[in-house]
Amino acid sequence: MKPAPFDYVAPATRQEALEALAVAPDGTRVLAGGQSLVLEMNQRAARPRRLVDINNIADFDRLEVDRAEEDGGWLRVGALVRHRAFEQPVESGPLGRLLARTAHFIAHPPVRCRGTLLGSLAYAHPTGEWPTLAVTLGAELVLASVDGTRTLDAESFLIGPFTTALRPGELLEEARFPLLRPTTGTAFVELRRTAASFAHLSAATALSVEDGIVVDVRLGMAGIAPQPVRARDAEHRLVGRPPTDSLIAEAATAAAAGVTDPPPDPHSGSAYRRHAATVLAERALLKARQDISEDMERP
């Protein structure tokens, strides 16, 4: 099939893009990578009346580290930064390693060359890699329109499957990922049917250990709820204690304990998904702990 008829606009500046989005906000979609949108348009699952192509806007490809002293710093990602940019660490610390590990789970090379991180966030697939990581790390998202900008944390932005807090006429302009402590180990693990398919379940973690004690931990899960979630009960069990095998196993069990009704899946029942979530959470935490040891051995 071919797309339904639509108007096409290719603005050259940020302001032109925002003005174009404001013309017919309810029927307008943004084209960045187009890896999901174009497919849905060809299938006529999506029928935008107006398409705003932002690929000509140079400022939207920014990818930079902002080391603000008051908050530890951020990695700032613009709306046109492709998945491929993260295949190698874009930052020398733990965050750069985690982003690189996550990027390799995304589809296959042609998709990574064209698709964008912010496009993935706006698409809001319930087990998408970047949404899962954004929730895990507490990323901040900047939404812009002709009326100004507003900032939301990733958990507030991702409302449900394929549903976000984007308002008509708004553009997801930037994502800000907090830089991680140097003593942080990271991991991202998935359960999926094929190398290029979306995950059934996934877990991401950033585990910070100092003097043998967990001082901070982030554990995010996808596939156990309508959108990615933080396993805060598991995190609370770990902080202030040494990350032993038994404690990690206890925390992993807690991560899946609150999953009373996982989303339906034709390939697995609720009991299996709860068990698999426990296994993935434990695997992610163990990998993160190992990553700390390996980082200490790096020159």
How do you describe this structure in short?
With 299 residues, the chain is α+β, with helices and mostly antiparallel strands. 33% of the residues lie in helices and 25% in strands. It contains 10 helices and 14 strands.
How is this structure best described in words?
The chain is of the alpha+beta class and 299 residues long. It has 3 domains: 7-53, Uridine Diphospho-n-acetylenolpyruvylglucosamine Reductase, domain 2 (2-Layer Sandwich); 58-178, Uridine Diphospho-n-acetylenolpyruvylglucosamine Reductase, domain 3, CATH 3.30.465.10; 184-293, Enolase-like, domain 1 (2-Layer Sandwich). The chain has 10 helices and 14 strands. It has helices at 14-23, 37-42, 94-103, 109-114, 117-123, 129-137, 154-157, 232-238, 245-257, 270-297; strands spanning 7-9, 28-31, 50-53, 63-66, 74-78, 140-145, 148-153, 158-160, 163-164, 171-178, 184-191, 201-210, 213-222, 229-230. The strands form 4 sheets. It has a 5-stranded antiparallel sheet with strand order 4-5-10-6-7. It has a 4-stranded antiparallel sheet with strand order 11-12-13-14, with helices on both faces. Strand 12 (201-210) and strand 13 form a beta hairpin. The longest helix is centred in the last third of the chain and has 28 residues, at 270-297. The protein is globular and about 60 Å long. The N and C termini lie far apart (55 Å). The mean pLDDT is 92. Pfam families: CO_deh_flav_C, FAD_binding_5. Keywords: FAD, Flavoprotein, Oxidoreductase. This is Xanthine dehydrogenase family protein subunit M.
